[in-house]
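Input/output pair, single chain:
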Amino acid sequence: MKSNARCWTPPAVALLIAMLLLSGCATANSDARAPCPPVVLYSVTEQARAASEVAALPESAVVVRMLSDYAVLRDQVRACM
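Output:
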C-alpha cells in the first residue's frame, strides 16, 4: 500500500507565498531607517601603533584583508550618519 503523506504536505513555494503575504500586513513603518551604529574613535597614538603592527604582518595575512573590509565598513557607517 502506498503512502499518501506526500500529497498532504504543502509545497515549500506555498509556504513562501503565505509568508510574503503575511509580511505585507506589518504595522511598522517600513520607511523608517535603522539607526546607524556608532563609529569608535581611536587616538592618533592608537592609530600609529596599529599601523606599525599591520605593517609588520606579511602581505598574505588574513588579518590584513579583514582590516581592509573593516575600513570599508567604517566608511559606510560614516556615510549613514
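The chain has one domain: 5-28+35-80. The chain has a mean pLDDT of 77.
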